[in-house]
């Protein structure tokens, strides 16, 4: 009985430690990338022993892959919770565009993590069945919206859901990852409330003009 009583607190302690490590690693990798992040700094931020990081996650590379997987799972899970199948196709597509924009704004570390992984030619994502499986859901979801729109005579036929997904991501991603250089080039505060609202409306209009008859 004593072993049973002590096991649950130990399990909870282990889970709490892993969560702290993952949260700390997310911040460090987002700030410094895989190459710049140090396990010592992650351990200090997580208030954990460096040995525990290697015990739970194996290596810095493996920890980065786990953080990256969690980041993709988070956005894909949030997309599924939008329940777009219950909406008019136009409303569903607009909600997805709005969601993507807001998610990028609320989770800037996601963008920097993606940037970092691209620098490494996606070598971690290539090994991740988790990301591959969950990402297919987004393509299926958008394909379903397009099919419903075509059947209702709202959308053009033959639109590739993969290309549309890429465009929805790109029109928000580029704006935000290039906001500093863009502010100089265009002499505009791209992160002001007015500029952000204007950009969101432009994104929505762009996608609708691509798909609507």
Automatic annotation (TrEMBL):
Keywords assigned by UniProt, alphabetized: DNA-binding
Known DNA-binding region: 38-57
Pfam family for this entry, one: TetR_N
GO molecular function: DNA binding
Domain HTH tetR-type: 15-75
UniProt cross-references to PROSITE patterns, sorted A to Z: HTH_TETR_2
Protein name: TetR/AcrR family transcriptional regulator
Source organism of the structure: Mesorhizobium tamadayense
């Amino acid at each position: 009985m004593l072993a049973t009583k002590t096991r649950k607190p130990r399990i909870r302690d282990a889970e709490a430690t892993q969560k702290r490590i993952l949260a700390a690693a997310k911040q460090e990798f987002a700030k410094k990338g895989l190459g710049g992040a140090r396990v010592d700094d992650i351990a200090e931020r997580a208030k954990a022993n460096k040995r525990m990081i290697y015990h739970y996650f194996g290596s810095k590379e493996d920890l980065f892959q786990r953080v990256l997987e969690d980041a993709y799972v988070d956005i894909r899970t949030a997309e599924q919770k939008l329940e777009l199948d219950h909406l008019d196709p136009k409303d569903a597509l607009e909600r997805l565009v709005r969601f993507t924009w807001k998610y990028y704004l609320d989770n800037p570390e996601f963008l920097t993590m993606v940037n970092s992984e691209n620098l490494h030619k996606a070598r971690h994502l290539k090994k991740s069945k988790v990301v591959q499986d969950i990402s297919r859901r987004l393509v299926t979801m958008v394909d379903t919206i397009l099919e419903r729109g075509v059947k209702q005579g709202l959308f053009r036929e033959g639109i590739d859901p993969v290309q549309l997904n890429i465009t929805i991501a790109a029109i928000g991603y580029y704006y935000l990852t290039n906001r500093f250089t863009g502010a100089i080039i265009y002499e505009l505060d791209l992160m002001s409330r007015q500029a952000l609202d204007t950009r969101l409306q432009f994104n929505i209009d762009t996608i609708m003009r691509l798909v609507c008859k």
